[in-house]
Amino acid sequence: MDAFVELGLPRDPAVSVDQVREAFREAGKQRHPDAGGEAGDFARLQEAMTILSDPGAKLRHWLELEGIDGGMRGPLGEGLMELFGTVGECLQEADALIRERQAASSALVKALLENRVQVVRERLEAMQDRIENETRSRGEAFAAIARGEVDGWLIARELAFLGKWRAQLRERYGALW
After folding, report:
1. Quick one: pLDDT band at residue 35, thresholds 50, 70, 90?
2. Alpha-carbon torsion (34, 35, 41, 42), positive or negative
3. 78 φ, ψ (degrees, to nearest 5)
4. Helix %, strand %, coil % of the chain (to 5)
5. Are residues 83 and 147 located together in one domain of the fold?
6. Quick check: is 66 in a domain?
7. Is residue 67 part of a domain?
8. 65 occurs within a structural domain
9. Do 24 and 111 share a structural domain?
10. Of 60, 63, 103, 104, which has fewest CB within 10 angstroms of its CB?
């Protein structure tokens, strides 16, 4: 399946999320089962929306459609390796606090932990913001990737890590509520 074709969009990794949403909305008007469309057609439309809404998935999809050699195994940029250590420390701190909080047997002990919980929540939020900024900065390279000026597979690998870390940070943040 070509997700770009499914949504009637140009095959361009720089297609914005807003363009994807609008194309989905327009295509859904005809292809939704309630509008007389087929369930299978609408399912493909939803799959295309999912792929093109995620920067990493969109880029991998585009690279594969274009037949550009490379893959998801390979080196990462130095900056991402530094970030890996920082994210790891933040997750470990959150995990330790989650375990401590779960082991707390009284309301008093839980209440005494609340200041630390707030500090860790703030660290998780700050790390999520950093991950979003890193993701956005890699998305800005999509036009250069399409012109062949930047290694798209390197960016795709980095986006995969950033997406995984974003999910882990959100999970820990949710566990601290």
Report:
1. confident
2. negative
3. -60, -40
4. 75, 0, 25
5. yes
6. no
7. no
8. no
9. no
10. 103
Q: Which domain, by its residues, includes 19?
A: 3-53
- Cα distance between residue 83 and residue 33, in whole Å: 45
Q: Does 115 lie in the same domain as 32?
A: no
Distances (CA, A) of 91 to 136, 169, 173: 22, 7, 10
Please work out, in degrees rounded to the nearest 5, the angle formed at the alpha carbon of residue 119 by the alpha carbons of 117 and 125: 100
Q: In this structure, which amino acid lies at residue 12?
A: D
Instruction: Identify which of 70, 100, 92 has the alpha carbon closest to the alpha carbon of residue 160.
Output: 70
What pLDDT digit, counting tens, does each position of 37-65 carry? 888 899 999 999 999 999 999 999 999 99
Helices (H), 32-77: 39-53, 55-65
Q: Is residue 36 part of a domain?
A: yes
Distance in angstroms (rounded) separating the CA atoms of residues 110 and 102:
9
The total number of structural domains that make up the chain: 2
- The answer for 10, left when phi > 0, alpha when psi is -120 to 50, beta otherwise, is beta
Provide the residue count of the chain.
Answer: 177
Closest CA to 48 of 34, 65, 35: 65
| Tokens matching residue 16 | 């914005």
Tokens representing residue 30 in the block: 């005809």
Whether residue 85 is found in the same domain as residue 22:
no
What pTM value is reported for the model?
Answer: 0.87
